[in-house]
């Protein structure tokens, strides 16, 4: 399973690097493209087989974030109706976003900043 995750996650990273090297897209646009493609592929039912195959290799990269948003919205719409569009993605991603904020804060307390000049 680890090799599958490594290969799939690595291929996603290679795609991102190729977009950086071969196009004039900014990193922000590439990021948005990956998130949106995760949402679209999930909505079409095409990303879940990749997740089943690669596990964290398909969930950890930014495409997996889009997949998680789509899954959360899908569950919230089934439970709450149309208003689930507005809350489902936030609910599904709250743990990961919260953890990143907490660990980022802890890191900022422990790290020594270097002058950029």
Give the beta-strand count. Answer: 0
Roughly what fraction of the amino acids lie in strands?
under 5%
Helical segment count: 6
Distance between the termini: 44 Å
Overall spatial form: globular
Structural class: mainly alpha
Main sheet specs: none
Kindly give the count of domains. 1
Q: Radius of gyration, Cα only, in angstroms?
A: 17 Å
The secondary-structure element order is HHHHHH
The level of helicity is over 70%
Return the average pLDDT rounded to an integer: 90
Q: Which residues sit in consecutive blocks of at least 5 with pLDDT less than 50?
A: none
SSE arrangement:
Layout: H1 2-22, H2 27-43, H3 47-54, H4 56-59, H5 62-80, H6 84-110
Helix pairs in contact: 2-5, 5-6
Provide a quick synopsis of the model.
With 117 residues, this protein is an all-alpha fold. Helices cover 82% and strands 0% of the residues. The chain has one domain.
Supply the key terms.
single chain; 117 residues; mainly alpha
Structure, explained:
This protein is mainly α. It has one domain (2-108). The protein has helices at residues 2-22, 27-43, 47-54, 56-59, 62-80, 84-110. It is globular and about 50 Å long.
């Amino acid at each position: 399973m680890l090799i599958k995750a490594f290969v799939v996650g690595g291929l996603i990273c290679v795609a991102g690097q190729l977009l950086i090297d071969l196009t004039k897209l900014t990193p922000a646009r590439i990021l948005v493209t990956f998130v949106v493609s995760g949402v679209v592929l999930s909505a079409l039912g095409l990303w879940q087989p990749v997740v089943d195959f690669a596990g964290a290799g398909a969930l950890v990269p930014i495409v997996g974030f889009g997949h998680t948003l789509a899954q959360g919205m899908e569950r919230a719409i089934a439970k709450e109706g149309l208003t689930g569009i507005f809350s489902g993605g936030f609910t599904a991603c709250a743990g990961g976003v919260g953890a990143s904020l907490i660990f980022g804060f802890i890191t900022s307390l422990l790290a020594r900043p270097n002058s950029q000049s």
